[in-house]
Amino acid sequence: MIYMIGSVRDGIADLLTGIWAERGRPAYARVVGYGAIPLWLAFPLPYFAPPFHGIAFVLGLLVAQIAFRSLYALVNISYAAWSVWISRDSRDRAAIAGLRMLFGTFAEVVVSVSTERILLAVSCDATSTPSFLTAASGFAVIATPLLIHGARRSPQGADGRAVATSTPIGLGLVAIASTTLSLSTPYYFTYVVRNQIAGTTALALMGITGSVFVPLWMLSRHQTGSRSLWFGATALAVAGSIVFALTDTGAACRADLFLVTVQAALAAFRFVFWAMLPDTVEYGELHGGVRVGALSFGVAPLLQKVSIGAATAIIGFAYSATGDAPQVTQSAVVITDIRWIMVAAPILDRLLSVLAMAANPLRRDMHRQILAKLAERAAATPPT
User: Fold this and answer.
1) Which of 66, 251, 262, 366 is the most buried (most CB within 10 A)?
2) How far, in Å, CA of 347 to CA of 305, rounded?
């Protein structure tokens, strides 16, 4: 429940940032450039220990978290919406989305590998607050000049003038929401495989898989289109789930293969979603008469995070309904239920996502037609 509340709060911050960006119409590059400085100063706040006690200490932690997350939303939403103005070509935007996923994963690896070394170098204690403050400050010092440099070298674009969303955004978010029901990997490896270390290995394999397959999905999307890639990834996930359900013996290797297969499909879903989102800006401009950018990228994280929080709560309720009791040997009935939750949820999610994507009006090459119609409309409209 706490995780769900936190996810919703972050999503609301993203939405408010998108609304502010659309109503105020600032240049995205300027927001990123100027916002990078306060974000840099706020980076150590999540690890800040207020010199208070009791409720004052808790409130201090809460304020620090809200300040950092709000500034992060300000820069992140503007940075994501920026991709709408980099290019109007759908293929370029898809490439940008894929590269952003790859570099994001690379950054996660760098931070994960270097953080512990920084902590030990500072105080020989990997849990001390000063060590975490130093690590966070160091990462901020590296990232901030890159943001400012990119903002200064990028051309400014004109933003939209109204607060609205396009139909494909809602449909795409329904589709992505159906994929956020998390796989219950720790439960399965703890109570079925009975090997928690193998579960940790499986999680690591899933993380690696999400990056390894992105270049393949980028190429596939270029050849077949976003919708075809989505449907193909659905077939991959459903087939992998069915095969695992029929052949599962509790062996870690079979579970690893199943999880890697489904994670590869999830990487395709995430890539398609973020690749299609910028194109909905022109779709909304054509059919609604208004052009929105930041708001689209503000609504997307809101619904995505709400979905993740809701999915987490649903899985928690599902395990409670099975009679699962933590840290004890489970009965054969409970173990069977754990298996079915792990297998049935991906199948149901992916089939629902097919229905949502099938209703999405953005077919292949439709974006080019939309751009042509917008150009004709602009040419026929007398200047004011």
Assistant:
1) 262
2) 21
Same domain, 315 and 201: yes
Domains contained in the chain, number: 2
For residue 280, the SS3 value is helix
What pLDDT, on a 0 to 100 scale, did the predictor assign at position 220? 92
Lowest mean pLDDT across 93-107, 136-150, 164-178, 339-353: 164-178
My answer on whether 135 and 184 are in the same domain is no
Position 190 pLDDT exceeds 50: yes
Tell me, what's the pLDDT at 243?
92
Last residue of a domain, one of 153, 181, 211: 153
**Co-location of 261 and 182 in the same domain:** yes
* CATH assignment at residue 284: 1.20.1250.20
Condensed to tens digits (0 to 9), the pLDDT of residues 350-359 reads 788 888 788 7
* Structure-block tokens of residue 133: 């403050």
Identify the domain containing residue 350 by its residue range. Answer: 167-361
- Residue 5, domain member (yes or no): no
Q: Which of 124, 153, 182 is the last residue of a domain?
A: 153
CB-CB contact of 175 with 356 (8 Å):
yes
**Per-residue pLDDT at 235 exceeds 90:** yes
Provide the whole-model pTM: 0.70
Domain membership of residue 83 (yes or no) is: yes
- The residues, any chain, with a CB within 8 Å of residue 163's CB and separated by 6 or more, are 19, 22, 23, 292, 295
Average pLDDT in the 86-90 region?
Answer: 73
Interior/surface letters 350-381, b for 16+ CB within 10 angstroms, e for the rest: bebbbebbeebebeeebbeebbeeeeeeeeee
83 and 183 in a single domain? The answer is no
- Measured from the Cβ of residue 164, the count of other Cβ atoms closer than 10 Å reads 16
124: alpha, beta or left, given left = phi > 0 and alpha = psi -120 to 50?
Answer: left
CA distance 51 to 58: 11
Q: Which of 135, 144, 168 is nearest to 366 (CA)?
A: 168
